[in-house]
Amino acid sequence: MSSFFKRNRRPEKRLSGRRGFILITGVIIGMFFVAALYQTSVYFSTNESCMMCHVHPHAEESWRLSTHVNNGSGVMVNCVDCHLPPKDNTWEHYSAKMALGARDLWGYLTRDSTDFDWDSKSELEHAVKYIPNKSCVKCHQNLFPEGVTDDAVTAHLYYEENAEKLNLQCISCHLDVGHYNPDYAHGQMTGIPGMSASYNMDSTLFFKEATPVNAFTDYREQIPGTTVSFQMRAIEGGTFKMGSPEKEPFRNEDESPQHMVSLTPFFMAEVETTWDQYWAFYAETMSEGRTPPEVVYENNLKVMGVDAISGPTSPFGYPDQGWGQGDRPAITMTHYAAETFCQWLSAKTGKRYRLPTEAEWEYAARGGTETPYFFPGSPKAFSDQGFLRNIIQPKTDSISAYVIYNKNSHSRTQPPSQVLPNPFGLKNMSGNVMEYCADKYDSQAYAKRSGVTRNPLVTGGEEWVVRGGLYSSDAADVRSAARNHTRHDDWLRTDPQQPKSIWWYSDIKGIGFRVVCEPDSLLF
Q: Which of 189, 197, 201, 205 is 20 to 30 Å from 163 at the Cα level?
């Protein structure tokens, strides 16, 4: 019996030895695999490996010029330090690394880098998706280092108190720290960009008087004391259907019900108020105070002498975002600032300029049409909304001729020369920038009207109506009937001033306005 058991135990010893060998071999292979995986991760965390896929020429150049390379401490911040979550959370760091790496590699292999819109990818709206805020906080734990300015202390205190509530991120105010942008300014603007601080110009070039208007016809207004002029279009009054029909694609409830509105004639600016116009106003009226001036009314018109008009304080940074000035639309001003501009323009020209009512705006935008746009085409053919649009790209040819929107804007405003006018001779009524109206926003305003409403104006509400969509809008949101409104508090999230600015918004770029002129203020 003993020999029997011995013979049967020998295979167990051989099997046990074999298992030990397999286990040791497995451990060695595992250690080798982990080491190889780690070294691979280290290699693909270098700046050089990042630039294998991110081949756009400005990536390395702008990084080397940034304060993350050129700073007083001598510390250099690398790509992964900003674009990935900190390694403290291993899973979050490496899962983000794999996801972003796979996405970048796929884009590199399947797309032509010359087709990439690098400028739009450097804008804040895109950058917030790829800069985890916790990565900023990992290094910048002390927000009040020695030598920090008083303005920075105020701003950082505001950030500490409101970061979670307002969903603030560091790059909301420090967009250029990782990649230098010569057009980005963090701090209070001095003077007027591209001009001397005193706005010096040859006075012999100034217009001496405003354009006389003796008939209801188009005219080119001249602003006395400046070299600035702009085109006004005569818009015949009439009756039209305001709002959208029930079957219009992408319509919203606040566009209902369709109703008849009658309007008296008015003049409207051919294009949105430009930087040339707004800087002329700013140069003549800019102020240090933030208290609204007293207003005098005559026949429902704000009347003040030019010298009595208190204009905007200096903004933080350059409100044109480095996109260009001249005849591009002026942006980021508040509704109050737009109204004050109209007040100044009225005093300068002797005419009655103001913001359009919402009804005037839609009537002018339609240009005599009743379709979703003033040009042929269905919103379904142009919009990106819907699952199939990820597969079937919408047609853009006809809409791009008339509208600056998310498909052709390059994530910024464009000059009016980029589009064709509508039937009334007006440009950029749809897209480019949202435009302020004189009405307060009421989602039920249309339901409160009956019959034919004459020259409606909504005066009750908290927010102001804005119309037309902006450069980042989908085609569905630039329809003639589409309505929107200001979001005052949200548009001032990162403004640390107390009280907050009444002149400039800190968190909205695509907002502007155009003016109308009342014919009854003129002598025909």
A: 189
